[in-house]
């Protein structure tokens, strides 16, 4: 998914040398220029300097190609995302969440493939499930029940994705119409009628905006709730997971 210089001209391809990896790499290069929505098989054929039928030999339709791109993007994304560790669950989960958000905000192609595009290949879905399994297992080890761990990571994931998708949709609207705004830009605040809103927003706050301040506040609230469930007045490594404690009590 690395960008190729726009000025660099791809050498003419020898007949029969095309392979799926070349097609996927070329598709990422082209998507950087025209976006996922603008990507098409004919344009990709021109970009690769091959006949479009050569691409259809490997990918029968655009969705098949997008699935392959998603598999690669998700594999790289999962590999680059920090794991959550039970011994320092709050710090590592915070780092995990911030890294996920930064990765999506910094790469619109990644965002469009994984978050906005609804279809995932079975391989991509399995990768996502394994990442979630590891996160839930670490939170259970830290002291949450399975249900609490699942709900906590689900809330974190939703918080990240919602923030990123809202920002991406805002950016897309701006690309199409420079005058386009967001709902949080249109809120009318008058000190005479809404003094509390005026006081808060005078400090740079925006109601409902997917900005850093709102993201960090929401993240802190989720983590604070998880902390209260665990009751971590002691280091997580010395605490006994409540699931195990309940099982022992029942025995």
From TrEMBL:
Residue stretches making up the HTH tetR-type domain: 17-77
Polar residues bias locations: 232-242
| Pfam families recorded | TetR_C_1, TetR_N
Which UniProt keywords are present, listed alphabetically? DNA-binding, Transcription, Transcription regulation
Q: Which residues bind DNA?
A: 40-59
> Transmembrane ranges?
none
Q: InterPro entries per the record?
A: DNA-bd_HTH_TetR-type_CS, HTH-type_TetR-like_transc_reg, HTH_TetR, Repressor_TetR_C
Q: Where is this region: Disordered?
A: 232-251
What is the top-level taxon of the source organism? Answer: Bacteria
- PANTHER family from the entry? HTH-TYPE TRANSCRIPTIONAL REGULATOR RUTR, HTH-TYPE TRANSCRIPTIONAL REPRESSOR FATR
What this protein is called in its record is TetR/AcrR family transcriptional regulator C-terminal domain-containing protein
Q: Which organism is it from?
A: Nocardia aurea
């Amino acid at each position: 998914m690395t960008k190729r210089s726009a000025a660099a001209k791809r050498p003419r391809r020898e007949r029969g040398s095309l392979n799926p990896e070349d097609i996927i790499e070329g598709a990422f290069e082209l998507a950087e220029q025209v976006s996922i929505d603008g990507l098409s098989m004919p344009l990709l054929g021109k970009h690769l300097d091959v006949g479009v039928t050569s691409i259809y030999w490997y990918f029968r339709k655009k969705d098949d190609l997008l699935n392959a791109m998603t598999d690669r993007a998700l594999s790289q994304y999962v590999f680059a995302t920090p794991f959550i560790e039970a011994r320092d669950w709050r710090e590592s989960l915070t780092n995990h969440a911030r890294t996920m958000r930064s990765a999506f905000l910094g790469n619109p192609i990644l965002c469009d493939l994984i978050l906005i595009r609804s279809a995932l290949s079975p391989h991509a879905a399995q990768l996502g499930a394994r990442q979630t399994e590891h996160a839930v297992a670490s939170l259970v080890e830290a002291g949450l029940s399975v249900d609490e761990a699942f709900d906590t990571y689900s809330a974190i994931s939703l918080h990240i994705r919602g923030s990123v998708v809202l920002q991406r949709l805002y950016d897309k609207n701006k690309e199409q119409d420079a005058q386009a705004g967001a709902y949080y830009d249109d809120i009318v605040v008058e000190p005479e009628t809404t003094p509390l809103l005026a006081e808060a927003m005078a400090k740079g706050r925006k109601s409902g905006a997917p900005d850093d301040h709102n993201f960090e506040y929401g993240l802190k609230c989720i983590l604070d709730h998880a902390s209260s469930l665990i009751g971590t007045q002691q280091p997580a490594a010395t605490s006994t997971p409540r699931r195990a404690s309940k099982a022992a009590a029942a025995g």
